[in-house]
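Sequence design from tokenized structure. All designs in this work follow the same two-part layout: the structure record, then the generated sequence. An example of the structure record is given first.
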């Protein structure tokens, strides 16, 4: 058996189409989504992420602007900047680009973003709403993982779901989202005594631990749905297990997930690839949250 591949790019495209319709409706009613990104200092990976955000927003009709603050910005100055954006009626969504410079308390600053503009769903108020089953603004990666499970069209109610990883942006919110869908979630972490025993019982397995190819095929229940959230850069090896060297004389790198894809796809019924699985849907969930924030403001 070889698993069906869950195409994240394809599914993200379907969501974007629906969002365009919603945005056009909002604009006709006088409500214009405006996502404001805040970046402190220069960071190459963050810069690429910002460019992708802008491209995706503009493609569906969301205004996107970036506030770039110098690397030596004081935390108090950043906090004051966030407060000004909270009070700016033209800004409907705020995203704080990571990483922040050393010495800044990222968690503290992020939680100061107004709940109704918190398009990453990380404000404690939005986390609390999730506990009560309100999924208006939810952490984007967690929502993406669950949306991909739902995209298959299988019955989720009563399914055993194992989540490997307990982070605030994936593991914990995923468990709440699945619980709200009447699955039976188990969250595994570094203190779990027998990880394989937990993963082998899962009808739905979500890997979000940040360790390259940690989940092997023999750790997966035959026929399980496998959602791989991990994004890890590792050296590409040749048939003898030696690093492949690129034309610049440096080891060639590749992107892999937390699941060993080659062995897992022979056991699972459905699986997400890395890249091309959860990633594209995570970006579109940011767009969805931006639209939801405007709908909340418009009482729609």
């Amino acid at each position: 058996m070889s698993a069906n591949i869950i195409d994240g790019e394809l599914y993200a495209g379907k969501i974007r189409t629906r969002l365009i319709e919603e945005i056009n409706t909002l604009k006709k009613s006088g409500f214009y989504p405006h996502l404001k990104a805040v970046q402190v200092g220069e960071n190459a990976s963050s810069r690429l992420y910002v460019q992708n955000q802008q491209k995706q927003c503009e493609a569906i009709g969301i205004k996107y602007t970036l506030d770039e603050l110098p690397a030596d910005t004081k935390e108090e100055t950043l906090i004051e900047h966030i407060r000004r954006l909270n009070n700016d009626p033209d800004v409907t969504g705020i995203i704080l680009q990571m990483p922040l410079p050393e010495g800044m308390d990222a968690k503290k600053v992020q939680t100061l973003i107004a709940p109704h503009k918190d398009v990453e769903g990380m404000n404690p108020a939005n986390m609390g709403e999730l506990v009560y089953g309100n999924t208006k603004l939810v952490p984007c990666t967690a929502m993406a993982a669950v949306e991909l499970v739902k995209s298959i069209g299988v019955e989720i109610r009563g399914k055993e779901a194992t989540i490997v990883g307990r982070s605030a942006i994936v593991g914990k919110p995923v468990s709440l989202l699945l619980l709200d869908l009447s699955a039976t979630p188990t969250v595994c972490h570094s203190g779990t005594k027998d990880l394989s025993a937990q993963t082998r019982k899962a009808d739905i397995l979500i890997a979000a631990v940040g360790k390259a190819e940690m989940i092997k095929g023999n750790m997966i229940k035959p026929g399980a749905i496998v959602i791989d959230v991990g994004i890890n850069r590792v050296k590409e090896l040749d048939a003898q297990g030696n690093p492949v060297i690129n034309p610049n004389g440096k080891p060639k790198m590749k992107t892999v997930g937390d699941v060993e894809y080659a062995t897992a796809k022979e056991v699972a019924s459905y699986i997400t690839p890395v890249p091309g699985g959860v990633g594209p849907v995570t970006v579109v969930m940011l767009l969805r949250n931006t639209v939801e924030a405007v709908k909340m403001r418009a009482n729609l």
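The chain has a mean pLDDT of 95. We note this feature because it recurs in several other targets discussed in the main text.
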